[in-house]
């Protein structure tokens, strides 16, 4: 489907690199430690010698979703009676939710690295630390904030908090899969930030919709919400300020944020954060939950050798068998798709977020910074698309509910072939606009009376997810899809994110006005975006201020796609 949950090619690359090279971890001094008593656990944090922060890794933020809690909402941990247990993790232990990869992701990574699909498959699917007991997070806290909190307990001394929600198409990725936040922490300087990175349930564990009451739709969203509630309750123990929480997400992580901002159509409690940075808020807007459910039941019958007819049968499977079922249910996804993700459930997600934004039904308490890339869609179009007939067929496959007339309008009028160099570019622009979040950033700006901050990442090839190498830049200028990371631009983007978290204004970052860059303006009625390209930074008019985006928003509201 065109509305694919966008998993970045870069993120898939990052995952394979981490399998090849091992986890990237901060250098620690095991003598220099700090302890935080959460009531249910005492956590030992290890100091980074050069970064000036403590890492508290694999902190449980929930009662783990195993046993009776498989496919159910869970809850915050309960304080223990007597002395809480001591948890000391140096960060070398990997904990991640069970992973699954579509075959097209495996094949593209194999081609990228020049290895066989079998080798790529083995590397991606055999990552260490996969477990259902995965609802943990990492806290990177400046040493001065931890010690100040311990000695003074003064809320006025608390520092802003940035929470990271990873991407990965809702079927793979983890709190550490995209990179190390040391660069962001460094750019915060003396102001300081506490950085939190979370896991949430993936694949059928977090997104299975049985429709019979056995499972809860959108469990992954509830996991994220619980982690954010944990931040509100406990981040002060690490020197963080719960009244200054910015949530940063990319791809699936950004679209998750969009769902929280539009939760319950803007009714009920406000989200437990004050600011949000949405990088390419992508998800499969026309996902049919019945597809993933059917695939899961068929896979379970294949794994067990006996008929499996309900989610109740899945509940009784062993952990090893369910992990196999999860992979088999995801591997069959069509090119650019993943079979699992957020769906309209009538309660937390009453309508598509894009539609809710258009109706003004969202929580206005959250300040927004958004970003999109110029060529988001290229990795999500089958490379075999070479003719106009191929393009029409690809659109039909992406939009199975669309009529022939709608598809003809798309390829003939809204995206005329003459406007694009190739049929692949034509379909890729549709993916960029509708599925990978580019138009959504425009919807968010208009819904917020143009009072958002928007950036455009245009460093070639500017595919989906490539800006994450800049977000998590830590001195490594290794090429991303053939182009070396520009340190100056990376620092400018990091400074913008940090300034937004600290002062609600990305234009106040120290590098935002430095050499080769310009200030980061408010979107405003002129639809201004901060463009980061090979030549530096510039302020330009939003390329999503076009006739295509309003059509998509209305088509989503009308059910045409």
From TrEMBL:
InterPro entries: AB_hydrolase_fold, CarbesteraseB, Carboxylesterase_B_AS, Lipase_GDXG_HIS_AS, Type-B_Carboxylest/Lipase. GO terms for molecular function: hydrolase activity. It holds the Pfam family COesterase. Residues 49-508 form the Carboxylesterase type B domain. Keywords: Hydrolase, Signal. It comes from the Eukaryota. Residues 1-21 form the signal peptide. Its EC number is 3.1.1.-. Belongs to the 'GDXG' lipolytic enzyme family. This is Carboxylic ester hydrolase.
């Amino acid at each position: 489907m065109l509305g694919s949950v966008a998993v970045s090619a870069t993120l898939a690359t990052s995952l394979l690199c981490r399998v090849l090279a091992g986890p990237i971890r901060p250098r620690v001094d095991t003598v220099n430690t700090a302890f935080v008593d959460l009531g249910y656990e005492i956590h030992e944090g290890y100091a980074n010698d050069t970064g000036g922060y403590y890492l508290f890794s694999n902190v449980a933020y929930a009662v783990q979703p195993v046993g009776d809690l498989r496919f159910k909402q869970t809850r915050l941990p309960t304080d223990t009676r007597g002395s809480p247990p001591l948890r000391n993790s140096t960060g070398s232990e990997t904990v991640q939710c069970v992973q699954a990869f579509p075959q097209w992701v495996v094949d593209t990574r194999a081609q990228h690295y020049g290895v066989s699909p079998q080798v790529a498959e083995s590397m991606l699917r055999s990552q260490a630390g996969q477990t259902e007991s995965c609802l943990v997070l990492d806290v990177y806290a400046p040493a001065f904030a931890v010690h100040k909190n311990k000695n003074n307990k003064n809320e006025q001394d608390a520092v802003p908090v940035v929470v990271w929600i990873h991407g990965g198409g809702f079927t793979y990725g983890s709190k550490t899969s995209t990179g190390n936040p040391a660069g962001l922490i460094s750019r915060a300087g003396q102001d300081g930030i506490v950085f939190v990175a979370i896991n949430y349930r993936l694949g059928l564990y977090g997104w299975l919709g049985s429709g019979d009451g056995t499972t809860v739709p959108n469990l992954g969203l509830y996991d994220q919400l619980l982690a954010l509630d944990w931040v509100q309750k406990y981040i002060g123990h690490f020197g963080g300020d719960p009244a200054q929480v910015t949530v940063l997400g990319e791809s699936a992580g950004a679209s998750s944020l969009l769902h929280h901002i539009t939760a319950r159509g803007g009714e009920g409690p406000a989200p437990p954060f004050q600011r949000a940075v949405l990088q390419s808020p992508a998800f499969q807007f026309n996902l049919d939950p019945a597809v993933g459910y059917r695939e899961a039941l068929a896979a379970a019958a294949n794994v067990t050798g006996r008929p499996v007819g309900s989610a109740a049968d899945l509940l009784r499977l062993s952990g090893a068998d369910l992990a196999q079922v999860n992979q088999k249910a995801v591997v069959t996804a069509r090119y650019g798709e993943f079979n699992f993700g957020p769906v309209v459930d009538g309660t937390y997600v009453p309508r598509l977020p894009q539609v809710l934004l258009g109706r003004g039904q969202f929580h206005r308490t959250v300040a927004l910074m958004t970003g999109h890339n110029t060529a988001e869609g290229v990795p999500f179009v089958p490379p075999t698309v070479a003719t106009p007939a191929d393009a029409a067929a690809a659109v039909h496959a992406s939009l199975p509910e669309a009529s022939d007339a709608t598809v003809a309008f798309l390829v003939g009028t809204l995206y005329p072939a003459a406007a694009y160099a190739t049929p692949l570019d034509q379909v890729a622009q549709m993916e960029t606009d509708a599925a990978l979040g580019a138009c959504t950033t425009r919807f968010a700006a208009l819904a917020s009376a143009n009072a958002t901050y928007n950036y455009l990442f245009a460093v070639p090839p500017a595919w989906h997810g490539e800006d994450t190498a800049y977000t998590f830049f830590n001195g490594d200028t290794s090429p991303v899809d053939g182009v070396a990371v520009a340190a100056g631009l990376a620092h400018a983007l990091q400074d913008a994110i940090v300034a937004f978290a600290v002062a609600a204004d990305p234009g106040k970052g120290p590098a935002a006005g430095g050499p080769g860059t310009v200030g980061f303006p408010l979107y405003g009625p002129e639809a201004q975006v901060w463009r980061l390209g090979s030549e530096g930074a510039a302020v330009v008019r939003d390329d999503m201020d076009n006739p295509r985006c309003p059509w998509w928003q209305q088509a989503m509201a009308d059910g045409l796609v």
